[in-house]
Amino acid sequence: MLFAAAASRLCPHPPNFTPIAAMALFGGAYFADKRLALGIPLLALLLSDAVLGFHSGMVSVYGSFALIVALGFGLRSNRAVLPLAGTALAGSLSFFVITNFAVWAAGVLYPRTLAGLVECYMAAIPFFKNTLAGDAFYTTVLFGGFALAQKRWSILAKTAPVPA
């Protein structure tokens, strides 16, 4: 899973349309070891950033995904569709707010004014659409695929959370 997630950032894809957030949410919701839940998505980011290039926004990006793992912890007792969808949306929104605030705060691309902050967020909206679509798609694949696997293999149905 780690290498597949890292590789997904290296293959051609629309900007921000990756499985990392869904993987972070899934790990938070299912992995028994919280260190693995946090470590796997962050290591996937680190491996792919080693190829793509390290950047000044890494702290906000990695922090955003750590927050998404924490949001996943809240799903451990209720993984129904509505709470899952709301939590995935909260993850997408938090990534958008945190990372774009960091871009604005750096003061390189946008002036550090209210108008500059608004301009920064407005310029990021096309990327946010991809984030929402990617997070919805990959969250459906991971959580839905695992739910189907639980129905197929009874041993998986007894796992809550999944031992890592």
List the helices and strands and how they pair.
Blueprint: H1 2-10, H2 20-30, H3 34-52, H4 58-73, H5 81-106, H6 114-152, H7 154-157
Helix pairs in contact: 1-3, 2-3, 2-4, 2-6, 3-4, 4-5, 5-6
Q: Structural class of the helices, strands and pairings?
A: mainly alpha
Task: Give the assembly state of these chains.
Answer: single chain
Q: Alpha-carbon distance between the termini?
A: 12 Å
Number of strands: 0
Number of helices: 7
The run of helices and strands is: HHHHHHH
Overview of this structure, please?
It is a single chain. The protein has one domain. It starts with a helix and ends in a 7-residue tail after the last helix. The longest helix is centred in the C-terminal third of the chain and has 39 residues. It has 164 residues and is mostly helical. It contains 7 helices and no strands. Helix 5 packs antiparallel against helix 6. Helix content is 76%, strand content 0%. The model has no long low-confidence stretch (mean pLDDT 93). The protein is globular.
Short structural description:
With 164 residues, the chain is mostly helical. The protein contains 7 helices and no strands.
